[in-house]
Request: fold
Amino acid sequence: MSVPPVLLGSKVNLGPMPESTDFQALYRTWLNSPRVVEGIGGGDCSLEDVRALHKQWKDDPNDCSFCVFDRQSGEPIGDVNLRLSGGEADLAVMIGARPGEGLGTEAVALALEYAFEELQVEKVRLDVFEENSAALRLYGKLGFQTTDFVLDESTGRMEYAMAMDQDEWLRRGRERPDSQDRATAPR
Ligand SMILES: CC(C)(COP(=O)(O)OP(=O)(O)OC[C@H]1O[C@@H](n2cnc3c(N)ncnc32)[C@H](O)[C@@H]1OP(=O)(O)O)[C@@H](O)C(=O)NCCC(=O)NCCS
Reply:
């Protein structure tokens, strides 16, 4: 995809991935941290691996990867990835710094708002390992439903497939207390 837009939240902003070596080195420390390895697998990642991954995303017309920034300090703290395919999207998120402060929830909500309301995606899907309590809680809270529970062949771990339809997102939006403000606020 071409450069993704900047999306403003109350605690985080989403924006294009920085291309500096400093950011790639930071991203590497996130990917190799025990909490992230536990959450998504992998680990033992080199700086070259990170560069290749970010280049692959940048070159892929169906990829919409956002860096997550702390709104106050402007520091990068993680990423949210949308991979678009035939009116649907796969989503992944990683909060590398400052987990457990509600930043992941807000980052995913901003990405979903963009996917469903700007890109007009009809369904967003994701997979999550069964032991990943924080991610399961986050996705459930935002409205994802479990659609399957399967063995991930590559890791031997069980994972939930989850999905949310555009209709469900819009229905929940109308029920949000601030929906009136959102409907009238300039975009
Ligand atoms: C999963 C992840 C994105 C969550 O981001 P976060 O910013 O830490 O999450 P939040 O602070 O928004 O919390 C989300 C919910 O999970 C709960 N939670 C946070 N950490 C938790 C933990 N270690 N165990 C259980 N629940 C937890 C929070 O209490 C919150 O629920 P609540 O609103 O009912 O209180 C983040 O931990 C992460 O990047 N993990 C590694 C990568 C990963 O697993 N990505 C998801 C792949 S599917």
Remarks:
- Residues 103-118 form the longest helix (16 residues).
